[in-house]
Amino acid sequence: MIAGRQAPARARAAEPGARHDLHARGTVGVVARREITVKLHDRAFLGSTVFMVVVVVLAVAIPAFIQGQTPRLTVAVRGSAAQQVVGAATTLGADAQKSSSTSVFGVGRLPGAAITTLPVESTAEAERLVRDGTVSAAVIGDDVRTLQVIAAGAVPDALGSLVEAASAQVQVSAAAADAGLTSAQLRAMLNPTPPTTVLLEGTARGPVPPELLVAVFAFLFYLSVLTFGVSIAQSVVEEKQSRVVELLVAAVPVRWLLAGKVIGNTALAVGQIVLLLGVGILGAAVTGRGDAVGQVLAGSGWFLVFFLLGFVLLACLWAVAGSLVSRIEELQATTIVMQVLVMLPFFAALLATAPGIVQTTLSYVPLTAPLLMPERVILGDVAAWEPVVSATLVLVLATLSVALGARLYESSVLHTSSRLTLRQAWRREGA
After folding, report:
1. Residue 254, Cα to own-chain centre: how many angstroms?
2. What values do phi and psi take at 76, rounded to 5?
3. Is there a contact between 80 and 170 (Cβ–Cβ < 8 Å)?
4. Residue extent(s) of CATH 3.40.190.10 domains in the chain
5. Which of 132, 149, 178 is nearest to 89 (CA)?
6. CA–CA separation, 221 vs 231, rounded Å?
7. For residue 78, what pLDDT band results from cuts at 50, 70 and 90?
8. Could you tell me the pLDDT band of residue 68, with boundaries at 50, 70 and 90?
């Protein structure tokens, strides 16, 4: 009976704490939603997001458009061997449009092209047509071993590759016929079986160069963290300068205000990055680069994890940088250190691309790990357990950063008379 009477008493004692936690979560959520709403109505933010989406679309569409354009070439031809070689080149160019694996002797990939031949009576006539731009080039000769390719400035790359391959094919076919080889033996000569590649270290390179993915992820991290970080700092200063922060703090505990600000901007930053990655992946799939989708997805997973941790690691410090000053004009003095902290991982990711002790070490340093560890994952130079350990280290430092940032922010956000140093802000907390 006594135990039964004590249980409700303990429950009632716990109710205030539970209500406090619910109130805190609700208040932080309100502040976070306010941050998100303000940003979504900010023309500068919307404009920059649209601009980045357009850049991603163009980066995917332009190469696909260029690769998808089949060159149309008109070639002047004089001589029996020239006709035979250009005819073979026309066939190879048409086959290459249908299959990207078209090759001769199993080496390289031939470009696709639509070739139209224009028979001429003399070399002089062929040269005249080349000079006035009627034809892209001219092929002259009755002997395949002494063919001449005539062009105005340079032979178009696709035409040069196809004519060289066709010339080799014609000569090999003639030699095979003289030697009495069968058609099956001739096909085996022209299309030999390539060797199998076995990689002892690393992974096979995908259709997208790993270095390019690293550069793209580094740029996205740098641009997003810098943009949102400066926005957080400016928001804090504007609230101080307009005295709005005094009204907010009167209604909301300072740490809740900071938590909502950080959570709201983190959600927006991650959402923006996911949008850009999604547009890029969708564009790759739509333009027929489905082979690149899996490669980008494999690199994006860990990048998003480390982006989230790295953003939280720096977000509170950006808020502190804003809380130390009282006017927008003074903000540059306190944010310069933050800009350096953002630039360090960016340049480290671009410079430390070669696997080695430097790259491995930096991938465990919390400030550079958000880009260096995903870089090692993309390059295939990492064991399965390493990203987990690195992410844990970043999480530990992010937790300490949040605690430090909350203390400094709480002691300086209401100081509006002059700029504070970090030491002064720290001592104000202890006062």
Report:
1. 37
2. -80, 135
3. no
4. 65-190
5. 149
6. 15
7. very high
8. low
CA of residue 359 relative to chain centroid, distance? 19
Cα distance between residue 372 and residue 366, in whole Å: 10
Fold of 65-190: D-Maltodextrin-Binding Protein; domain 2 (3.40.190)
- pLDDT tens-digit profile of 208-244? 566 677 788 888 888 888 888 888 888 888 888 887 8
**How far, rounded to the nearest angstrom, does the alpha carbon of residue 64 sit from its chain's CA centroid?**
17
Question: With left for phi above 0 and alpha for psi between -120 and 50, is residue 109 left, alpha or beta?
Answer: beta
What mean pLDDT is reported for the chain? 79
Residue 342 near residue 292 (C-beta atoms within 8 A)? no
Strand, coil or helix: what is 150? strand
CB contact at 8 A, 395 and 306: no
Tokens 């949102």 identify what position? 228
pLDDT score of 395: 92
Q: Determine which helix (DSSP H) or strand (DSSP E) holds 76, and give its type and residue range.
A: strand 72-78
On the 0-12 / 13-18 / 19+ scale of CB atoms within 10 A, 219 is middle
CA distance 214 to 9: 59
The first and second tokens of residue 91, run together, are 């066939």
Report, as an integer, the average pLDDT of 367-386.
Answer: 84
Structure confidence by residue, pLDDT tens digits, 114-149: 889 999 999 999 999 999 989 999 999 998 888 889
DSSP symbols for 220-261 = HHHHHHHHHHHHHHHHHHHHHHTTHHHHHHHHS-HHHHHHHH
Round to whole Å and give the CA distance between 360 and 300.
Answer: 20
Token representation of residue 357: 């002790």
β-sheet bridge partners, residue 116: 74
Largest CA distance in the chain: 118
Task: Supply 139's token pair.
Answer: 């092929």
- Strand boundaries in 342-393, DSSP class E: none
Closest by alpha carbon to 144, among 126, 120, 168, 162? 168
What phi and psi, each to the nearest 5 degrees, are found at residue 133? 80, 10
**Phi/psi of residue 297, each to 5°?**
-60, -40
Is 73 in a helix, a strand, or coil? strand
Tell me 144's DSSP state: G
Give burial (CB, 10 Å; 0-12/13-18/19+) of 28: buried
Mean pLDDT of 70-76: 86
Residue 14: pLDDT band by 50, 70, 90 thresholds?
Answer: very low
- Per-position DSSP letters for 57-71, written without gaps between them: HHHHHHHHHHHHPPP
